[in-house]
Amino acid sequence: MVCAALFLEGERNEGSFPHRAKEGIVTQQQMPPPPPGVPPPVGPQLPKGQAIAAMVCGIISVVLCWLPIAPMVLGILGIALGAIGMKKAGAGVAGGKGLAITGLICGIVGTVWGTFYTIYWFIVGAALFSMGF
User: Fold this and answer.
1) Measured at the alpha carbon of residue 89, what is the angle toward residues 52 and 92, in degrees to the nearest 5?
2) Cα separations (Å) of 96 from 12, 39, 59, 110?
3) What is this structure's pTM?
4) CA separation (Å) from 40 to 34, 45, 55, 77?
5) Phi, psi of 69 (to 5 degrees)
6) DSSP 30
7) Eight-class DSSP state of 112
8) Which of 121, 96, 118, 101 is nearest to 58 (CA)?
9) d(CA 104, CA 56)
10) In whole angstroms, how far apart are CA 61 and each of 31, 72, 109, 125?
């Protein structure tokens, strides 16, 4: 009687256990879900300080792009740290590849805009100086 019940149970689950249903054995047991609020186990975190520094320097260089010289320095730092961070993240030594890419792109944009505005401020300053202001 028990064997017939297992066989019939196997026939009902034939779609999910085709190799076991013909034998009449259902061996897979469902595990209960983990209790709420318990995070899954995580592996060791890779360091991403260089990528964060690249992103911070890049974003600050974009925000301060209207000032002379400062955004160029911060942008070059963001570019250098972003490139090194991407290389380390690609090798698996560090994490934060997305942060490093953000720092690299923002550093490039901040350096270009900062260079433009630095040249602009020098031209405006020279023109104002020649007019006696």
Assistant:
1) 135
2) 48, 21, 16, 21
3) 0.66
4) 9, 14, 29, 37
5) 70, -50
6) P
7) H
8) 101
9) 10
10) 52, 7, 8, 22
The alpha carbon dihedral of 54, 56, 57, 58 has a sign of: positive
Q: Which two tokens stand for residue 120?
A: 């602009």
H or E, element range at 93:
none
C-alpha to C-alpha distance for 98 and 125, rounded to whole angstroms:
39
Each residue's pLDDT, cut to its tens digit, for the chain (133 residues) gives 444 444 444 444 444 545 554 555 555 667 777 678 877 777 788 999 999 999 999 999 999 999 999 999 999 999 999 999 999 999 999 999 999 999 999 999 999 999 999 999 999 999 999 998 7
> Do 103 and 60 meet the contact criterion of CB atoms below 8 Å apart?
no
φ/ψ of 9, rounded to 5, equals -60, -40
Rounded to the nearest 10 degrees, how much is the dihedral formed by the CA atoms of 117, 123, 124, 128?
Answer: 160
